[in-house]
Amino acid sequence: MNKKILVFFPDGVGLRNFAFTQFKEMGEQRGNQIIYWNNTAFPLQEELGYEEIKIKTKKIHPLTPLYCRIRKHIELNVATKKFKDEVYQTYKFPFNYKGMKNTLMSFFIRLLIGFNSSEKGILRIRKRINALERSTEKYKDCKAQLQQIQPDLVFCTTQRATQSIGALLAAQDLGIPTLTFVYSWDNVPKAMQLVETDYYCVWSDLMKKEMLQYYPFIKENQLFVTGTPQFEPHYDESLLETREDFFKQYDLDAAKKYICFSGDDETTSPLDQYYLEDLANAVRALNEKGENLGIIYRKCPVDTTSRYEAVINTNKDIIAVINPLWKAIGKQWNEVFPTKADLKLLHNVCAHSELVTNVCSSTVFDFVAHNKPCIYYNYEQPQLKKGIRDIGQNYNYVHFRSMPSPEAAVFCTDKKNLENQIAAILKGNLSNVPVGKKWYAIVAGETPTEASQKIWDAIDTIFN
């Protein structure tokens, strides 16, 4: 092809998909020159030897986050009306009325939402965001860089970062084709589409349908169904370590069978530590009945709380902590980056655990890729009180409606059942894997090993 492709990282979420997989090599095999356009603190050149251009100006317009919030609220209001479904209101974060400044800000936001709650209003607010971003130094700097690099295409690795708006507008204003990847399985119904590009890569036919449903200004010929590179490492046999080596490396007991507890962020599961405690109690009870089980606790990579510590310390004999291999390159939560080594670690945690338990995460698909079951906790904790979010609302979200049937995961709806459900899984009498695989295909597409390849096919199609 001999095209110059600028792979754009507005933030660190795309690193796992587009820097640590075979994505770059595949593009080069097709004769393309790949340059990374890096808006993050992650040193691509230093760590991976990749050609990169750093975006120096990080400052977006101070009003952009405000207008993006307004846009999100309006899109959710329009969806509520359009689909006659109140679930969209649960995606909103509450307004802040603490202090005069926050109160005035909240009133201003609500006023603009009220005046613009329609399809036309969405377009007005989007235009306003674009005008704000075109007035920034960031936009001018990005434009100057693009004039210097002269790429044939800018590929943005996530659709949900405010940092990407100005850079992509600069590309479009210079007539450079733009393509973005929709980053996560729940992003479309949640109104997390912050950028407008010429083309979009989506995970599946389901996501394509959603894009056309929620964004009438996007046309079918702008969408490519590619799958996601997120799950490709699970099929890379070179990452698999022997059980003996893996257990030795992480000081695990070779006589034990391990259950993975995959931690959640504080927003999704504010009482997550108590589910870990319930699992520890169930494992203890099973061990008293002759099982020999342990727990691998893998925390959510961006969770910096100490909320699990007491449970871990009380259950040191059964809980082994294997933290994700992410790297902090700054003080903020969004300056904690994945590493290539973590892809290997996750592959082996899946391969050497019997099953995974958690609250509503896409880890169900990581484990299904290894033919391992998943238990979803779906009961309230007694510590739940006013002001703490109940995890039950997660399972009402639109992306859970993609389940072909409730058997796509093993739902634990009462902590009294947890012990029996684990025992039944270990005996081979209970599993979500057969239906889970169907769900995985609906969400991530039929060919999870070919996503990177299909994204390059999409890029070739754009040029042709």
The figure for the number of domains is 3
**What is the residue-averaged pLDDT?**
96
Structural class: alpha/beta
Largest sheet: 7 strands, parallel
Overall strand count: 15
- CATH class value of the largest domain: Alpha Beta
| Fraction in beta strands | 5-15%
What is the CATH third-level topology name of the largest domain? Answer: Rossmann fold
Widest sheet: strand order? 3-2-1-4-5-6-7
| Count of discrete alpha- or pi-helical segments spanning 4 or more residues | 17
Organism: Flavobacterium palustre
Protein name: UDP-glycosyltransferase
Q: Can you describe what's shown?
A:
There is one protein chain. With 464 residues, this protein is α/β, with parallel strands linked by helices. It folds into three domains: 4-60 and 136-227 and 448-463, Glycogen Phosphorylase B (Rossmann fold); 64-122, no CATH class; 236-443, Glycogen Phosphorylase B (Rossmann fold, 3-Layer(aba) Sandwich). Helices cover 40% and strands 13% of the residues. The chain is built from 17 helices and 15 strands. The chain has helices at 15-18, 23-29, 44-48, 64-83, 99-116, 119-134, 137-149, 165-173, 205-214, 243-249, 272-288, 309-314, 340-351, 363-368, 415-426, 433-444, 451-463; strands spanning 4-9, 33-38, 52-54, 153-156, 178-181, 199-202, 223-225, 257-262, 293-298, 319-321, 327-328, 336-337, 355-358, 374-377, 410-412. The chain has a seven-stranded parallel beta sheet. It has a six-stranded parallel beta sheet with strand order 10-9-8-13-14-15. Strands 11-12 form a two-stranded antiparallel sheet. α9 (205-214) links the parallel β6 and β7 (223-225). α4 (64-83) packs across α5 (99-116), α4 (64-83) runs antiparallel to α6 (119-134) and α7 crosses α8. The longest helix is centred in the N-terminal third of the chain and has 20 residues, at 64-83. It is globular and about 70 Å long. The chain starts with a strand and ends with a helix. The model has no long low-confidence stretch (mean pLDDT 96).
